[in-house]
Specification:
It holds the Pfam family Oxidored_molyb. The protein has 162 residues and is an alpha+beta fold. It has one domain: Sulfite Oxidase, Chain A, domain 2. It is built from 3 helices and 10 strands; from the N terminus they run αββαββαββββββ. It is globular and about 60 Å long. The structure holds the ligand Nc1nc2c(c(=O)[nH]1)N[C@H]1C(S)=C(S)[C@@H](COP(=O)(O)O)O[C@H]1N2 and molybdenum atom. The site of the ligand Nc1nc2c(c(=O)[nH]1)N[C@H]1C(S)=C(S)[C@@H](COP(=O)(O)O)O[C@H]1N2 has 13 residues, from loops.
């Protein structure tokens, strides 16, 4: 191989992994199976649609993966296991711009919560607008969208218990 070709391939590989690192989401902390989810992995998971009002009170249809599906895949203590000391675990979601938001596990668990909090990748059938994606948490039924964290990079489960 010529030097130029090797340089080209190396650059292509580095670029591809940089893009994947940007769009992928890691699930870590108090999980039995840490995950590095690519956009393709997320695309294969259960997809749901919710309707929620944005900051201006305008309703939109958002679709994506229920956060509990992702946590279940990572082996987080949900469902029948969400009891005792596990009741003091929380999920911290981090974004590329340093913004971080917190959820308790019961508000994400389908056996507790009647609303479904999702990791959205579409609004009204279209990919999320530039700067608000590629993945954004959407919390239906909340009066302000401050927890609708965009550019999601990681989800970390931890114990708050002292
Ligand atoms: N990554 C990230 N997500 C974020 C924020 C932020 O600063 N960074 N701001 C939040 C706040 S405080 C609000 S009110 C909404 C605003 O969303 P909008 O710009 O789509 O109306 O996004 C939330 N998601
Ligand atoms: Mo806000």
């Amino acid at each position: 191989m010529t030097h130029k070709l090797i340089t080209f391939i190396t650059t292509a590989v580095l670029f591809t992994s940089a893009v994947q690192a940007q769009t992928g989401i890691s699930v870590e902390g108090e999980v039995s199976r840490p995950l590095k989810l690519t956009a393709a992995d997320i695309g294969r998971m259960k997809n749901v649609e919710v309707t929620a009002a944005d900051r201006d009170g305008k309703e939109h249809r958002y679709s994506g993966v229920p956060v509990y599906e992702i946590l279940q895949q990572a082996g987080v203590t949900l469902g029948a296991q969400l009891r005792g000391e596990n009741m003091s675990k929380y999920l911290l979601v981090k974004s590329g711009d340093g913004y971080e938001v917190l959820f308790s596990l019961p508000e994400l668990d389908s056996t507790f919560a009647s609303r479904v909090i999702i990791l959205a990748d579409k609004m009204d059938g279209q990919p999320l607008p530039a700067g608000k994606g590629p993945f954004r948490i959407v919390v239906p039924g909340e009066k302000k969208p401050a927890r609708w964290i965009w550019e999601v990079r990681s989800m970390t489960v931890r114990f708050a218990k002292e």
